C-alpha cells in the first residue's frame, strides 16, 4: 500500500499542509525570501544566459500564459515562464542557499508564481495560498535533500 512507503508518508504529510499551519514567523521569513528572490531575479534578467533562455522560449505559445519578470509586455506558457524566471534568479547566484547546498527559493518561486498566474480568473488564489504553495515547495525540497545521501556529501567533494 502506497501510504506505508516512505514516498506515501511523504506525500501524505505534504498533502496535509494548510495555511493555518503557517506561523507568523514563517510568513515573515517567507515574505523576505520572496522579496529577495524577486530582486535577484529582476537583476538576473539582464544576464546573457537569461536573454538566451528568453529567446529560446519565444518558440512556445499557449492559451495559458505567465509573466516574464522585467518584461510587462511579454508572456510565455507557465512552464517556460518558470524556466526563464528561474534562470534569471540563478544566473546571478545571489539567491538564498542552505545546507546541504541548494537554492530553495530560486527553484520554487518562479514555478509558484507562473502557476498562480495561469489559474483562471474566477479561481484566483490568495496571497496566503501563494505563501502556502511556496512553503510546501521549500518543504518538499528540504525533505528530498534530507533523504539524499548525495546531498549530504556535497561539502566533502
Short summary:
This protein is 61% helix and 6% strand. The protein has seven helices and two strands. The chain has 157 residues and is mainly alpha-helical.
Note the main attributes of this structure.
157 residues, 6% strand, aconitate decarboxylase activity, 7 helices, 2-methylcitrate dehydratase PrpD, mainly alpha, IRG1 decarboxylase, MmgE_PrpD, 2 strands, globular, MmgE/PrpD_sf_1, two-stranded antiparallel sheet
Describe this structure in words.
It is a single chain. The chain is mainly α and 157 residues long. The protein has one domain (22-152): 2-methylcitrate dehydratase PrpD (Orthogonal Bundle). It is built from 7 helices and 2 strands; from the N terminus they run H-H-H-E-E-H-H-H-H. The protein has helices spanning 6-15, 24-44, 48-57, 78-92, 104-118, 127-147, 149-152; strands at residues 66-68, 71-76. Strands 1-2 form a two-stranded antiparallel sheet. Helix 3 packs antiparallel against helix 4 (78-92). The longest helix is centred in the N-terminal third of the chain and has 21 residues, at 24-44. The protein starts with 5 loop residues before the first helix and ends in a 5-residue tail after the last helix. Belongs to the PrpD family. Residues 9-151 form the MmgE/PrpD N-terminal domain. This is IRG1 decarboxylase. InterPro entries: MmgE/PrpD_sf, MmgE/PrpD_sf_1, MmgE_PrpD, MmgE_PrpD_N. One of its GO terms (molecular function) is aconitate decarboxylase activity.
